[in-house]
Amino acid sequence: MTNTSESDEDTPRVPVVCPDCETTSRVPLSTVADAIDRHNEQLHDGDDVAEVDPDVADRIADLVAAELGLLEDGA
């Protein structure tokens, strides 16, 4: 997977994994969707193979659900 670089070292980077290529890369948050789409188009005929690391995606989903109050009992 191509690793996108940005000059700003403070830019959050997201781990992207591709099990078929057996690669992991960190790409800037602002370009993660484009990087995944480009990788899948170029290497996997557009199939959704590469993705944000599932553990990270799950953690983000948990944080968002908590922020929205979706995990509170008795809602």
UniProtKB/TrEMBL annotation:
Record-linked InterPro entries: DUF8149
Pfam families to which the protein is assigned, alphabetical: DUF8149
Domain DUF8149 stretches: 7-73
Protein name per UniProt: DUF8149 domain-containing protein
